[in-house]
Design brief:
The protein is built from 5 helices and 5 strands, in the order βαβαβαβαβα. The protein has a 5-stranded parallel beta sheet, with helices on both faces.
Length: 121
């Protein structure tokens, strides 16, 4: 399973990539919409950081879903409007950063492989 991680913040990108890899998937970091577009053909899924400054997170969700990719978005826990817009744009799930920081591998594994139950933590 190849997962693109679109995040323009180096620290957050590194953390997300590590969480994806810990879930058992291959993580590929990308930082721009152009890089996302170039990498989409070889990807199974995409994680989009909605709070980036270098790109429009909602546009990224639309771009990935238009390419037929599964999308999980991440953002601030208190931004209900942005989460709603991401779901309307096609994201399957929108998680707060804290969810992936605290329980990332299990959360991502259950999203990537919904037919496999992951142990609760």
């Amino acid at each position: 399973m190849r997962v693109l991680v679109l995040a323009d913040d180096l620290i957050w990108s590194t953390r997300l990539v590590a969480q994806v890899r810990a879930s058992g998937a291959d993580a590929v970091p990308v930082r721009t919409l152009a890089a996302l577009d170039g990498a989409l053909p070889d990807a199974n899924a995409v994680i989009v950081d909605l709070t980036a400054r270098a790109y429009d997170g909602i546009a990224a969700v639309r771009q990935a879903t238009a390419a037929g990719k599964r999308v999980l978005a991440v953002g601030q826990h208190d931004d209900a409007e942005l989460r709603r817009r991401a779901l309307e744009a096609g994201a399957e799930r929108v998680h707060p950063y804290r969810k992936l920081f605290e329980n990332g591998p299990a959360t991502l594994a259950s999203w990537l492989n919904p037919e496999v139950e992951t142990p609760a933590r």
